[in-house]
Design brief:
This protein is of the alpha/beta class. The protein has 28 helices and six strands. Strands 1, 2, 3, 4, 5 and 6 form a six-stranded mixed β-sheet that branches. Helix 5 packs across helix 8, helix 10 packs antiparallel against helix 11 and helix 17 runs antiparallel to helix 18. The chain is globular and about 75 Å long.
Length: 561
């Protein structure tokens, strides 16, 4: 065995835990594709497109809505129908090595890299690994083959920054991993004036060499790189947000606000700020404002991003994400995601967040396919794995939900959401004993459901009684999470254990404080079947949810960024 290989470092314990987890990336994608259940197809849509009962706009028992669902289905088919399942080629852009010894060269190199990635994301048929997953490999002494195998690509872009007279230049190469053959190379002056030209030329050469279709040119006047004094703070915020921890979300909000303070025209920073506020809602983090105020801020920031830069894919993705969470009309949300995918078909956030809308509306197969593609584009991101696990939970593919939640926890052990998804999937998959082996933290209500499932009913009831007492007292039950988390868990326990009428006050309470009071993926996961099968109670839940979007719009009017 060659010294220093991934396997050697795994066996001798010198490989970081998340890096060891990267060894299962390809297997995880294969499991996702293999375990995905076949759904009933609608003959009015193209092969592979389905509408599954239970979505917010899709047909549902006793509900109707087929006309709206059919219209949405046609939009989805138009957006996804011609894409195919395979990429023509795959590529990752590695960090450019700084040989100058000067820190400003790193900033300039990162700017060029971002410009190039923005263009590559718009190349159809090209699998482009996200910057975040590539960053996870920084500091590891991996061979070209090890890097490529971990990221699942057959081409790499390498670069080095070297001193030249009184300035610096960057040498860039396109490398075919098989045989480590250099397909193209050139060098450029590393300064903001030449950055755009260099990125355009590299993009053109890569597209030609790999025979992939280039999207149209980027909008003129965009502030994406070091031309903006807020760029470094924006970059820091993006990296912090990728962790999905509460500290990461809070620090990302501060970083994006810093970027905006330094450059109020930096559209990317507003898009990042929108995403951070929206993610705080999904993860139930206490960030000092309630869920509706956070939603209003997220929507306002996304609108501002698009007002500054109308062709910003990140802006459309951010607005689509918060609008989906806030239960905006499906066609409106779809329009934002369709535009984002037109601009950047390979951006993992776009794919992952579009899956959220698709699963919300009952398009299960399409949602899982989009979430799987987001994983393929961002394989070392715990967020992408968590997203796929969440979509699988609602699709009732509990084995896939458990599989992906566990990979997410291997990549990032300190984020609670994937553990709660794993526990719910184990419970619903008749593996409650395994659920009891998990540390659920503030999700005592989920533990209570697992206890109830194995016959320890008195223990379960004691936990739920304690939660209800704490919620009625009105104080925070956990320093990092909002009480929406516990209210939702109490509602789930009561609905799942046969008391759906008693669950309704807690559903009201959860939605009173957050537009995602009961996440749609949990609501339709199986935990609330006893409630949703009662037509009167289902209508009561729908009545609550139909008022959410209007409230978020009012919050946006009052929001101050």
């Amino acid at each position: 065995m060659p010294k220093g290989t991934i396997l050697q470092r795994f066996l001798d314990g010198t490989l970081l835990p998340w890096a060891a987890a990267a060894l299962v990336v390809a297997a995880g994608v294969w499991v996702a594709l293999t375990l995905r259940s076949a759904r009933q197809e609608d003959p009015s849509l193209p092969p592979g497109f389905t509408i599954t009962p239970g979505g917010d706009s899709g047909p549902r028992p006793g509900g109707g809505g087929e006309g709206e669902a059919g219209s949405l289905g046609a939009l989805i088919a138009a957006t996804l129908g011609g894409e195919g399942d395979a990429f023509a080629a795959s590529i990752a852009v590695l960090p450019f090595r700084n040989e100058t010894g000067a820190a400003p060269a790193d900033t300039l190199a990162n700017g060029l890299r971002d410009e190039l990635l923005a263009r590559l994301y718009g190349s159809r048929g090209l699998k482009v690994i996200s910057r975040q997953s590539v960053q996870e490999l920084e500091g590891l002494e991996l061979s070209i083959r090890e890097v490529a195998d971990t990221l699942g690509v057959d081409h790499l872009i390498l670069g080095r920054v070297y001193p030249y007279q009184a300035a610096a230049r960057v040498e860039v190469q396109l490398l075919a991993v098989e045989g480590e053959v250099v397909l193209w190379g050139n060098d450029y002056s590393l300064d903001p004036i030449n950055q755009m030209r260099a990125a355009e030329e590299i993009w053109d050469e890569v597209s030609t060499a790999l025979l992939v279709e280039r999207a149209g040119p980027l909008a003129q006047g965009r502030h994406r790189t070091t031309e903006s004094p807020g760029y470094v703070a924006y970059l820091a915020g993006s990296r912090l947000l990728n962790t999905r921890s509460r500290e990461g979300v809070l620090r990302a909000i501060d970083a994006f606000r810093t970027a905006i303070g330094r450059d109020s025209t930096l559209a990317l920073a507003y898009a990042g700020l929108s995403s951070a506020y929206a993610l705080s809602i999904t993860y139930r983090y206490d960030i000092g404002v309630d869920g509706y105020a956070a939603a209003g801020l997220a929507l306002k920031a996304a609108d501002q991003a698009l007002a500054l830069e109308p062709e910003l894919a990140e802006g459309y993705a951010a607005r689509g994400y918060i609008a989906s969470i806030a239960l905006a009309p499906a066609q409106r949300v779809h329009g934002d995601f369709a535009r984002a995918m037109e601009l950047q078909p390979n951006a993992p956030n776009v794919r992952a967040w579009y899956a959220n809308l698709l699963i919300r509306e009952g398009f299960y197969d399409q949602a899982l396919a989009e979430a799987e593609q987001a994983v393929e584009l961002d394989p070392l991101s715990p967020a992408r794995r968590t997203g796929l696990a969440y979509e699988a939970l609602r699709a009732r593919d509990y084995a896939l939900a458990v599989e992906q939640a566990r990979v997410a926890l291997t990549l990032e052990a300190d984020v609670l959401l994937p553990r709660s998804i794993e526990a719910m999937a184990l419970l619903l998959g008749d593996q409650a004993l395994d659920c009891l082996g998990l540390d659920m933290g503030p999700h005592a209500g989920i533990r209570a459901m697992c206890l109830h499932a194995v016959g320890r009913v008195e223990e379960a009831r004691s936990i739920v009684d304690s939660l209800r007492t704490g919620l009625w007292a009105g104080g925070p039950l956990h320093p990092e999470f909002t009480s929406v988390l516990q209210a939702g868990d109490v509602a789930a326990y009561l609905a799942w254990t046969g008391s759906p009428e008693r669950a309704m006050p807690w559903i009201h309470r959860a939605y009173a404080h957050s537009p995602s009071g009961i996440d749609p993926r949990v609501l339709e996961s199986g935990l609330f079947d006893g409630l949703l099968e009662n037509p009167q109670l289902r209508r009561a839940v729908e009545d609550i949810r139909t008022r959410i979007w209007a409230r978020v719009l009012r919050e946006e009017e009052e929001a101050r960024l």
